[in-house]
Amino acid sequence: QVQLVESGGGLVQPGGSLRLSCAASLNIISRYIMGWYRQAPGKQRELVARITRGGTTNYADSVKGRFTISRDNAKNTVYLQMNSLKPEDTAVYYCNAEFVGLVYWGQGTQVAVSS
Predict the structure, then answer these.
(1) What is the pLDDT of residues 34-66, one digit of tens each?
(2) Which one of 5, 6, 20, 88 has the lowest number of neighbouring Cβ atoms within 10 Å?
(3) What pLDDT was estimated at residue 28?
(4) 8 Å CB contact between 29 and 98
(5) pLDDT recorded at residue 29
(6) 100, 31 contact by CB (below 8 A)
(7) Sign of the CA dihedral running 44, 62, 36, 31
(8) Which of 2, 66, 64 is nearest to 33 (CA)?
(9) 30-to-52, 55, 73, 87 alpha-carbon distances in Å
């Protein structure tokens, strides 16, 4: 059973930065499609960024140029570097792992952007 544990959330002022981490319990980072999703109050969960097995990355239009997804296979960890944060980035951020129909989620980490 794969477990994903997110960390790094918190309260930050607009324009600030945070780095989220997602640690996997098994050696899956290099074999699964790893993604970050977010869900704001009253809204549907949405894809923020994704990295494939081959290293291809995709981003939501709203975060392009500000967020960067990366992974460290040796540490079984995926990161989301978030720069130039805006109040509309406030949400619970979830780590996601997908492989041949299997989908796993972390418990989420809260990010709040406010002055």
Answers:
(1) 999 999 999 999 999 999 999 999 999 999 999
(2) 88
(3) 86
(4) no
(5) 86
(6) no
(7) positive
(8) 2
(9) 8, 9, 6, 32
